[in-house]
Design a protein that fits this description.
The complex is a heterodimer of chains A (117) and B (202). Chain A is an alpha+beta fold and 117 residues long. Helix content of chain A is 35%, strand content 36%. Classes of the chains: A alpha+beta (117), B alpha+beta (202).
């Protein structure tokens, strides 16, 4: 399943996984102490080829429309990692619930590195 | 390291393209089996061409081996420290902890270079540091300070209660080039200001 789907009297509303990952990316980088969203092999290769469309944020939508998000992060040096991770999880949850009305099951944060801010 | 990864990816892309082109040429009947046979016979007949082919083969094996090592090394570095919050799981890559420790070299002026290796197991977090010190450093005092700073920084930033073991290996005591240059310049200046300073009575 690549996109979340809901139906009303006028038709079908589909939200693509990329939309969810974009919202999560923006919400995560809003938090002070977050340097940027990290990379994985796919997004690294895409960046190498000059395409910035691929995000390293993984979105899984289960059959009962529960969303699981995995966010790789690079944190700024000097910040408390658990605190930043917690704030990122909360902000991403709020943003996704506000913008997509989706039910969020899990927001997993993976701190990949630390960089100077 | 990134340069070699890119080089490896480009190399494999070129190799696959060459194989693809060869297959297309073969499929279009532009390359006959007899031609391939002649080419192979020619390659084996000459002593020089055999050496070149053998060396190319060895080089290919070496490139593949080093590329595999880079990839496997990256996978190995994906080990993490994990904890769970109400919203989900938080994993901290050990390479992130290494980044954090590497930054400590900037805080302590006596440390010229710092290479950390972090392992997380049942015992706790084990940090092995290979350091290069500046010549004026007092090693016992400095290493003890470095251990304390590293430990408190890890506890502060990661917020973990696990035991943190810090092992330091002083790999080198480097002579500070800036200082030596400065002293040389000073000597030069000193000599130039005193006329005939190089002469003395025998």
């Amino acid at each position: 399943m690549n996109r979340d789907e809901s139906r009303n009297e006028l038709g079908v509303l589909r939200i693509h996984k990329n939309v969810i990952s974009s919202i999560a990316s923006i919400a995560a980088t809003e938090i002070e102490g977050v340097k940027r969203v990290g990379r994985d092999l796919k997004s690294g290769l895409a960046e190498l080829l000059g395409k910035k469309f691929f995000s390293a944020i993984k979105v899984d939508i289960s059959k009962n429309e529960e969303v699981k998000v995995q966010i790789p992060l690079i944190i700024k040096y000097g910040y408390n990692i658990p605190e930043i991770a917690n704030r990122v999880q909360e902000n991403v949850r709020l943003a996704l619930e506000k913008m997509s009305n989706l039910s969020i099951k899990e927001i997993n944060v993976n701190v990949q590195g630390i960089e100077r801010g | 390291m990134r340069f070699f990864t890119v080089l490896g990816i480009v190399f494999y892309a070129v190799m696959i393209m060459v194989i693809g082109l060869a297959l297309i040429v073969f499929a279009l009947n532009l390359l006959l089996p007899a031609d391939i046979n002649n080419l192979l016979i020619f390659a084996q007949s000459s002593h020089n061409s055999r050496i070149v082919i053998g060396l190319s083969g060895a080089l290919l094996i070496l490139i593949s081996f080093s590329f595999a090592q880079i990839i496997l090394g990256k996978f190995q570095r994906e080990k993490t420290i994990a904890f769970t919050t109400s919203s989900g799981q938080v994993t901290i890559s050990l390479s992130a902890v290494e980044d954090l420790i590497r930054r400590l070299a900037g805080i302590i002026p006596e440390v010229k270079e710092l290479r950390p290796n972090v392992v997380a197991n049942k015992k706790g977090i084990i940090v092995e540091m290979r350091v290069v010190l500046r010549s004026e450093a007092n090693i016992p005092e400095l290493t003890s300070r470095l251990q304390d700073i590293t430990k408190s920084k890890i506890q502060e930033v990661l917020g973990v209660d696990e035991q943190i073991i810090i092992r330091i290996h002083v790999a080198k005591i480097a002579h500070d080039e800036k200082d030596s240059r400065r002293s040389k310049d000073f000597e030069k200046e000193d000599r130039s200001t005193i006329p005939f300073s190089g002469y003395g009575r025998v």
